[in-house]
Amino acid sequence: MNKVATYLNEHLAGEVIVSGNSIAKNSTDKSQLLIAPEMIAQVANTNDIRKIMRFCWQLAEKGHTLSVTARGRGTSATGASIGSGIIISPAKYMNRIIGIDPKQKLVHVQSGAMYSGVTMTLSTHSGMRLPSISNTHDDGTVGGSVASGATGFMISRYGRFGDSVKQLEVVLANGDILQTSRLNKRDVNAKKGLHTFEGEIYRQVDNLISDNQELINSLETSCASGYNSIAKVKKKDGSIDLSPLFIGSEGTLGVVSEAILQSQFARRNLSMVIGAFETLGDAHGAVDVVKGTKAATVNLIDGRLFKRAAAQGKKREFAPEASYMGGLVVAVFDDFAERSRTRVAKKLERDIAKSDGFIKATVLNIADSDASEISSILSLAKNPAAGLEVVPGAFDGIWLPSVQLSSFFAELTKIEKEFSVELPAFVDIHSGLIDLMPVFDMKKVTDRQKMIRVLSAVSDAANKHGGSLSGSGGEGRLKSLVIYASMNEAEAELYEKIKNIFDPHGILNPGVKQKILAKDVASQLNAWCREAA
Q1: Looking at the predicted structure, is the pLDDT value of residue 221 above 90?
Q2: Residue 503, class by beta-carbon neighbours within 10 Å (0-12 exposed, 13-18 middle, 19+ buried)?
Q3: First and final CA of the chain: distance in angstroms?
């Protein structure tokens, strides 16, 4: 048995596994990459994580790097939840809801708690909910959702999942514990006076912000590239909250062990208006009509996604075949009063019928828990039925200013022609987040190469129109490959400094949210293809 694993098993309440199905299972995520870890640590409590980090830190001080990757459900679409060293997995044991405060609508959970379990408990307990983490009802852990900067259905109503974070408990690279919250200037000065790693972090972060204030003020916080959330850390009153740095950090700054989240009252009954149009441009034109209403969320969907789902048997009356080469607009109303919802939905149904290229409008009255019509279509569109055909999740979570959408679509059309690939889109209009769903046959070397080239072309198009390939969900390895190749040098240097403050020995998830060589991604991609075949 691995000597390190033997040593750790002597000291952990959980267990460390070095062979069998667990290694194979944890070698992949949803990214089409493969990296086999040396061992899987199924941690039982925060102290287990601390012991592992302290051990790895001491090894690093002696010149031996054993990397650590925190993994929830392994749902990263960009390769952020795989690594070659130790995988820390809290899902088996650290999955409890520690407490709920109905008055303040707070829920205290361990990082391995499943999102679905927490939301179900909140729903039955007090009618509350958390922001969604997926447009297709995919599940994941709370820690993974925080670390990935996850977003999902009705983001414009409930916000991003990271917006719900009130406090975090984080195990730092040296094994110390950091409790994050908004600290006033006096408390910040007290932290800076500590002769500990935590004190060093507060001193260096505060100095970094002071030395780079102009650059930090220029960062686009709608994107999720690097650690641009540094712009949210310090307020003008001198208060500091380190929580934003860990949200979307993909385990590169520390390992989240617990979280206190702010829930909201759920709006259970919804009215959905779906308009089908002859072209995607016509559908986009109708969006202006929808934006004039009080819709809680507005989506623009490429009709080719409905065609793809229909080929697998899921046909819907609200998406007739005439719209398969066009597009659909979906507006959701969630007013508590049914009469109010029905009135605005019916009015919108009449108004969009006057738009160019209109085919059909449908009004559905549904419960929030049943709002799966669109999610089900997207799930099928993202899961081709043939062999090793895949829809890489690295094309999810693109951010774009809404005023640039038409010209961005025109750019996508050029990319489609250049690479002979379809790039159907799902757009959340209010947030500006876009998921593209191209299909690649991973059995073919040419398609594997094409995937990276198309990803790079899409990234260039997003940058050209003031957006970013990484609007949500983190960069992982796949997006890092193209994002950091074109990132402003000063910005990249800022992020490298932040990484070095929290992880000076490079222990935490190396290769993620930093420059990565194309040959490394290619080898991981090819390894996945051999394994999947």
Answers
A1: no
A2: buried
A3: 29
Give Cα 235 to chain centroid, integer Å: 25
Query: What is d(CA 403, CA 304) in angstroms, rounded to the nearest whole number?
Result: 23
Q: Could you identify the residue written with the tokens 């779906």? A: 274
Number of CB atoms found within 10 A of residue 62's CB: 7
Q: Is the separation of the CB atoms in 177 and 201 below 8 Å?
A: no
Q: Which domains does the chain have, with CATH numbers?
A: 97-265 (3.30.465.10), 268-381 (3.30.70.2190), 387-473 (3.30.70.2740)
Token pair of 49 as six digits:
């994580």
Contacts of 228 (CB under 8 A, 6+ apart): 219, 220, 221, 491, 495
What phi and psi values does residue 188 have, to the nearest 5 degrees?
-60, -45
Whole-prediction pTM: 0.93
202-216, 356-370, 380-394, 449-463: which range is least confident on average? 356-370
What is the chain's percent helix, strand, coil content, to nearest 5? 40, 20, 40
Bridging pattern class, strands 425-428 and 297-302: antiparallel
Residues with Cβ within 8 Å of 477's Cβ and at least 6 positions away in sequence, in order, are: 31, 33, 78, 79, 80, 511, 512, 516, 520, 521, 524
